[in-house]
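User: Fold this; C-alpha cells only.

Assistant: Input:
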Amino acid sequence: MANESKRTGKPEPPIAKPTEEEEEKDVTHARRRRHWIWPVGLAMAGIGSAAAFFLRGCWHAHMTWPARYDEEFSYQVCPNCGIKRLFDENSFHAYGPYGYDVKELIARERAARIRRLRRHEELMKTQKRIE
C-alpha cells in the first residue's frame, strides 16, 4: 500500500538509483551549462556600460571661467549643454549639484548652510550640557 499511486491506486514502479556513470554525466553536464553563463554576463555588462556611456549625454568636461552672481556666489557654465554649477573662489573649485537655474542652486546652498549651522549650534549646546 505504501508503494501505490494516490490517483489510480495502482502500484508504482520502484525508482532506480542512477549508476556512477550517469551521475558523472549529470555533473559534467551541469558544469557545461554553468560555463557559458559567466561570459554572457560579462558581455551584457559591457553592453550596458557602453549604452550608459553613449546615452548619458554631456559630461561637462569643459566649464567656462567662473562668473560672479553676487558678492557671495560665483558659478561656472558648461558651454556644451548650458548647465551651471556653483564655484568657490577661495578654494578655486566647483561644488554642489548641477542645475540650469542659478537662483535655485543658490537657494539650495543657503538652505544647506542653515542646516549645517543649526546642527553645529545643537552640537555646541549638547557639549555644554555634558561639561
